[in-house]
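User: I need a structural model of Lipoprotein from Stenotrophomonas chelatiphaga for a docking pre-check later this week. Nothing fancy, just the predicted C-alpha cells so I can convert them on my end. Input:
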Amino acid sequence: MKTTTTFRWTAAAAVLLLVAGCASTSRVMLGQARAPIDPAQVQVYSTPPAGSVEIAQLESSSAVGFGTQGQTDAAVARLKRDAAALGANGVILMGVGSSGSPVGMSVGAGSYGSHVGGGLGIGIPTTQRKAAGVAIWVPNPQPVPRLPAQQIPAR
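Assistant: Understood. Predicted C-alpha cells for Lipoprotein:
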C-alpha cells in the first residue's frame, strides 16, 4: 500500500512540474528585426513614443498557477525578453488577462494491480496570465517616469 501511495504522489509531482513549464510566446513580425539587446534595456510603454518603429506583435503567457501577481510579472518579463531578442528597446503593453489552464489538474484515488483504493478526488482550478504588446524601437528613448511608492502608515 505504501508503494501505491508513493507512486501516486510521485506521479502528481511529475504532472505539476510538467504543467509548470507550459509558458509560451507567439509573434507576428511587423517590421525589420535589429541586433538583440539586454532585456533590462527594454522599457514598457502604454502609448507609442514619438518616432517609434513597430517591429513585432507579441503575445505571451505565464506558467500555469493560481492567478498571482507573479504570473503577470512573468508574462510581461517574457514580452520584454522576446522584444529584446528582436532588438526592440520598448514594448507597448496592449493588455494583460487570464485564461483557464489548458491542462486540468486533479488528485484522487484509483486502483493499482490487485489493490483497489477509494477516496476523495480534489480538482484544482488553475489559470494562466497572458500579456499582449507591440515590440518597438525608439530612436532616443527617454526614461519612463516612475510614480513614487505610496507610504503605508504604521499601525
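Before docking, keep this in mind: Confidence is low (pLDDT under 50) at residues 5-21, 102-112.
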